[in-house]
């Protein structure tokens, strides 16, 4: 590879990095003013990217770096994301709670995907919303998108609308504790099953009680762990579909399970075995966050706003109905197992 080939992506990467820096700065200001990031830098980067693309279409000088950021940097971020997930939480939760959480995720995935398809959303967009709603919001969408070959517009739409609903859940969920007469443990379980991100779980539970925050965080971390099996399952399904669609010839293992999924699982295994020191973890996780924000800026720069407008109403309805379905399924588990975390 020549020096000019290496230099070709630099302008586009620099543009995406500048947008990411602005998004991270805005999140920092938001945390200073409100105490917590209601709108994360991932979402802000997409919105800034879309705004820039609406006012100006990047030319050939910028597109190689934008494509590089949206693909390779995102895949590297997914590998590093694996270091933030530890199977140790499963053993702390206990087998029955783990089975219950896995069942909620599975049923919610099926229900959300069914709702999206019933509302005539494209298959990939329905999968993104289902994974974001059922597992861990933005992180799940980001991890699943390259596995299924999702378009930039689909990723931007699913993250943007899911983020808005996520903030609404954080603000309104505490009202259910007195309305449903939930104990601190029961409410913590409900929050861990329905709120999208770990920081949002803390925001939704700490006003109710510290015990709720403890239970909610544990349940949420076990729920995040479901991301591994889901992305492997989707990767195998996509690989099988591609294999069946090809007339003759072999298919490479990397087409069935992409390299970044193998890397994600390897990092999760290393973290679970305690082979990643805390000092290294303190570098890997922030690096994954920064790379993800840069990739989201690139996705925003590739978004045609007209496409999002066309599906906006259906996406909003799908996310809302999916969230209500998740809430109903979670309440069933709380009713069945709430006494264990009373």
UniProtKB/TrEMBL annotation:
<feature type="transmembrane region" description="Helical">
    <location>
        <begin position="35"/>
        <end position="56"/>
    </location>
</feature>
<keyword id="KW-1003">Cell membrane</keyword>
<keyword id="KW-0812">Transmembrane</keyword>
<feature type="transmembrane region" description="Helical">
    <location>
        <begin position="68"/>
        <end position="90"/>
    </location>
</feature>
<feature type="transmembrane region" description="Helical">
    <location>
        <begin position="127"/>
        <end position="149"/>
    </location>
</feature>
<feature type="transmembrane region" description="Helical">
    <location>
        <begin position="96"/>
        <end position="115"/>
    </location>
</feature>
<feature type="transmembrane region" description="Helical">
    <location>
        <begin position="315"/>
        <end position="337"/>
    </location>
</feature>
<feature type="transmembrane region" description="Helical">
    <location>
        <begin position="222"/>
        <end position="241"/>
    </location>
</feature>
<dbReference type="GO" id="GO:0005886">
    <property type="term" value="C:plasma membrane"/>
</dbReference>
<comment type="similarity">
    <text>Belongs to the UPF0324 family.</text>
</comment>
<feature type="transmembrane region" description="Helical">
    <location>
        <begin position="155"/>
        <end position="177"/>
    </location>
</feature>
<dbReference type="Pfam" id="PF03601">
    <property type="entry name" value="Cons_hypoth698"/>
</dbReference>
<dbReference type="InterPro" id="IPR018383">
    <property type="entry name" value="UPF0324_pro"/>
</dbReference>
<feature type="transmembrane region" description="Helical">
    <location>
        <begin position="253"/>
        <end position="273"/>
    </location>
</feature>
<feature type="transmembrane region" description="Helical">
    <location>
        <begin position="279"/>
        <end position="303"/>
    </location>
</feature>
<keyword id="KW-0472">Membrane</keyword>
<keyword id="KW-1133">Transmembrane helix</keyword>
<protein>
    <submittedName>
        <fullName>Sulfate exporter family transporter</fullName>
    </submittedName>
</protein>
<feature type="transmembrane region" description="Helical">
    <location>
        <begin position="189"/>
        <end position="210"/>
    </location>
</feature>
């Amino acid at each position: 590879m020549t020096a000019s080939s290496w230099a070709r992506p630099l302008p586009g990467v620099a543009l995406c990095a500048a947008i990411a820096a602005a998004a991270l700065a805005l999140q920092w200001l938001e945390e200073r003013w409100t105490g917590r990031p209601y709108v994360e830098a991932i979402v802000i980067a997409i919105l800034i990217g879309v705004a820039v693309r609406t006012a100006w279409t990047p030319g050939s000088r910028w597109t190689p770096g934008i494509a590089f950021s949206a693909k390779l940097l995102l895949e590297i971020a997914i590998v590093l994301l694996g270091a933030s997930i530890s199977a140790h939480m499963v053993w702390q939760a206990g087998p029955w709670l783990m089975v219950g959480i896995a069942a909620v995720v599975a049923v919610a995935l099926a229900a959300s995907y069914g709702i999206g398809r019933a509302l005539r959303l494209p298959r990939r967009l329905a999968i993104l919303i289902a994974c974001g709603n059922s597992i861990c919001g933005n992180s799940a969408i980001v991890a699943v998108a390259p596995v299924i070959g999702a378009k930039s517009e689909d990723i931007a739409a699913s993250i943007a609308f899911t983020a808005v609903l996520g903030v609404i859940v954080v603000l309104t969920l505490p009202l259910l504790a007195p309305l449903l007469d939930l104990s601190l443990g029961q409410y913590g379980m409900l929050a861990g099953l329905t709120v999208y991100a770990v920081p949002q779980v803390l925001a939704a539970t700490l006003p109710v009680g510290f015990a709720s925050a403890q239970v909610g965080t544990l349940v949420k971390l076990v729920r995040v762990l479901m991301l591994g099996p889901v992305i492997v399952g989707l990767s195998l399904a996509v690989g099988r579909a591609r294999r069946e669609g090809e007339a003759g010839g072999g298919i490479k293992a990397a087409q069935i399970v992409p390299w970044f999924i193998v890397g994600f699982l390897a990092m999760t295994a290393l973290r679970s075995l305690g082979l990643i020191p805390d000092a290294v973890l303190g570098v890997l996780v922030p690096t994954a966050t920064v790379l993800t924000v840069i990739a989201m800026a690139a996705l925003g720069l590739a978004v045609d706003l007209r496409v999002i407008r066309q599906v906006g109403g259906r996406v909003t309805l799908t996310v809302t109905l999916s969230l209500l379905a998740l809430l109903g399924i979670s309440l069933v588990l709380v009713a069945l197992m709430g006494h264990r975390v009373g």
